[in-house]
What does this fold into?
Amino acid sequence: MSYQSFSLVPFASHSETFPFTISGDVSWEWKDGVNRLALNYDLSGDLTSVMIPPAAAYPGRRDGLWETTCFECFLGIPGMESYWEFNLSPAGDWNVYRFTGYRQGREDEGAFVEVPFAIAPTSQSLSLHLDLDLTALVSHPASLEMAVTAVIEQRDKGGDRALSYWALAHKGDEADFHLRGSFGLLL
It folds into this structure.
């Protein structure tokens, strides 16, 4: 089993402070023929300015989840250009995309008809737990490269909307989760 904890940092061109943190852990293992990924996020602190989408009446596959608060991760196999993007909304909506190369050939990943994950909100935190069988995506790779990311929408006292972009590391001049050099976890 491979296990790592993480702490995300915001992309910022200046030293902006945030009243919350994003941390978590990830594990990956093969057991009894199942390729299992477990991912936990914890958004904690003063969340009064964070826009958390309300629970969807009928959660399902949706596009554009990154336009508001959304937890994301990216998976790739070392040495291969293709990769997958997972979007998980606190509303319960989700999507998984397959790319053939850097931001190329995006398609809905047909291996999933649902992505079960649990959301646990409190006044001071929002936790997300994903436990997913990846067997339909990859047979038995020796390792996986992973980027753990989040988009957080906030409203200021004037009601203006702002998005912040959180990742293990930001390798470009702009926030860009698709940069393969940002896939900072090796499982």
